[in-house]
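Query form — protein Circularly permuted type 2 ATP-grasp protein

QUESTION: What is the three-dimensional structure of this chain?
INPUT:
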Amino acid sequence: MTSQAFDEMGKGASLHPAYAAIADWLRETPPADLAAKRAEAEVLFRRVGITFAVYGEGGDPERLIPFDIIPRILARTEWQTLSAGLTQRVRALNAFLADIYGKQEIIRAGRIPAHLIQGNEQFRPEMQGFLPPGGIYTHIAGIDLVRTGPDQFYVLEDNARTPSGVSYMLENREAMLRLFPRLMARHRIAPVNRYPEDLLATLKAAAPERAGPDPTVVILTPGSFNSAYYEHCFLADEMGVEVLEGPDLFVEDDIVYMRTTAGAKRVDVIYRRIDDDYLDPKAFRPDSMLGVPGLIAAYRAGNVALCNAPGCGIADDKAIYPYVPAMIRFYLGEEPRLANVPTLLCEREEDRKEVLANLDKLVVKLAQGSGGYGMLIGPHATQAERDEFAARIRAKPQDYIAQPTLALSTVPTLVEQGIAPRHVDLRPFVLSTKDAVRIVPGGLTRVALREGSLVVNSSQGGGTKDTWVLEADPAPSQSQSQSMGGAAAC
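ANSWER: The structure tokens for Circularly permuted type 2 ATP-grasp protein are given below.
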């Protein structure tokens, strides 16, 4: 699979110009020096405490996400194409959410089957007839992209609920600045450090009007046992807001307050990192100990904003994903700028027959799965595993989708054996208000560190890279300088 994949850096006459200086750097730097820098990066990440949690596998659940020191690079024109497509897609997703919790015109127009909405467990009837401030439902979206060729990008997945990973994007850049300041100085790299500022502005823009120009914003976390707890605390610190757990908040007369040493303080905006089911035991799961009783009533009364809104999960359900291009045409009257991966819905008899006949060629996913779990990569699976999935599909076809096994692009990666190509994806983070869509240039590049693996999730052995979006062509590489008769830049 790796040998068939598009190499983003290229080599020889096909070397991507954006990678010219990196190619020189890799050629000039002894392997021992690269290994030393990788070890230095690991020490740095351990010192800062950049971990994620994996439970149920035994051992220490707190793990360090592997960080690769070779950056992934996108040219300015490549990013402009992606940015325009991401903006379009998230605008359509927000319009879709407003519609299905409102007049449901897309259903009446026959563009999407009603049962996929009304029978979906991510659809929240509690949200029907309620329009959040500014008409925005998914304020923070993470859109997973994959690449298969020079100009071939596909949206693999939409994350419209509580997308994670932005802290690693920011920490990766900080690590590269510390480890390789001279290398970075040879490139004009678009900054990512404004993300916390943009996030805070997005959250404040969602506040009820009566909150005034400086609303009180907090982050609601499930607590230290959540896999993304580090990120919750990191973002709270970067934005200068409180990170709270459910018991730190209470509702009185449909108004949300947080407990402080100086007494109760009113809260205007909650950036919630808790799943819908656990947000409010009065509205959803009565056994939830993580949420805030009465929170949804306060939200519907217009006294507090929740970002993202409850019910956003219907927009990133994998059974809904095939219909996003239709959403773009229906709500925006535009052709999609970014393509979907061709997708088969196992609930359709014709699609199901095709899937069952080609399990050795397809990737099968749970419609509501995440994190790389509940997935079959047919070409890499055993016959027993394919037989097991066939039985699952026959038993509950509505739970599964299937897609072709894409040859994800590769970038050079430092592994134990040296520098080798490894498959990657990209998760840019899209911030939406009623007036603007903001996207910091780049995003989180996740890399499948195991040879031949297509699974990039950290919980499944993946790592991360810094993603550089070039604002201009890089400084001439050593080989280019020599060809022009100039001295090589250090």
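ADDITIONAL NOTE: The two ends are 36 Å apart (CA to CA).
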